[in-house]
Amino acid sequence: MPKHALRYVTCLALPFAAAVYAGPVLAQAVEGSGSSKVMMFDRPPSVDELREVVAPEAKVRTRSIEIVGGAASGAAQRPRPTDRVNYGAPPASSAPEASAPAAQAPAPQKAPPRQPPQQAAQPASQQTAAAAPPEPEPAKAQSFGFRINFAFNSAEIPKEFYSYIDSVGSLMTQDSQLSLLVEGHTDAVGSLNYNQALSERRAISVGEYLVRVHHIDPQRIAVAGKGPTDPIASDPYDGRNRRVEFKPAR
User: Fold this and answer.
1) Owning domain of residue 151
2) Are 145 and 233 in contact (CB under 8 A)?
3) Contacts of 145 (CB under 8 A, 6+ apart)
4) What is the pLDDT of residues 47-94, one digit of tens each?
5) What is the pTM of this model?
6) What's the total number of domains in the chain?
7) Is residue 158 part of a domain?
């Protein structure tokens, strides 16, 4: 086999092997901490994925029983149980003892109060589990974001990121009551004033895309430039802080 042919096969085989052993690449991950948790997507998300973050389904309502027709009037006439319970015999007369006749019959003895049935002792492990308070659920991300690779000092959205924002437009089209706040974020490289203005320009560019392409009512979109003031990486100079973030407008 010619040397150049062997080299060509090797160049094809090595990237394939690297792809096999590298493992799956995470397409989404929760970043940040506390109330600043953000679901970051590294590929265009589906509408259902976005809805799960900013507009989760309402909690299941508990079932109730409704009485209709004649049953309602009958139930209204039925006596309601009271909270008080009469234990033992009624109290004795308040007349003084001297006025009682001499040959008075002895008062009947009261029956001893009934003791509640004893419950079987639970194992110590079950008692401990019952007494332990439930663990709080971890806070979920309340916003999602994309790392749009804007050109240097530019607010123009690259074409390869149109599909990301198209998912947001589809979500807002389907959920007509949903309003979103679009935030632009930068890292700490550069002056604060420069990053503040640049992040605002990029947030406006995304909002205008939603209005122009998906015909979203501008009243449902708010924009804000955050600059480097709200990083999701511990290092404020980390490039992962550069992002466009979406959260429900309050």
Assistant:
1) 20-54+140-248
2) no
3) 38, 39, 40, 41, 185, 243, 244, 245, 246
4) 999 999 987 663 434 343 333 444 444 444 444 443 444 434 444 544
5) 0.59
6) 1
7) yes
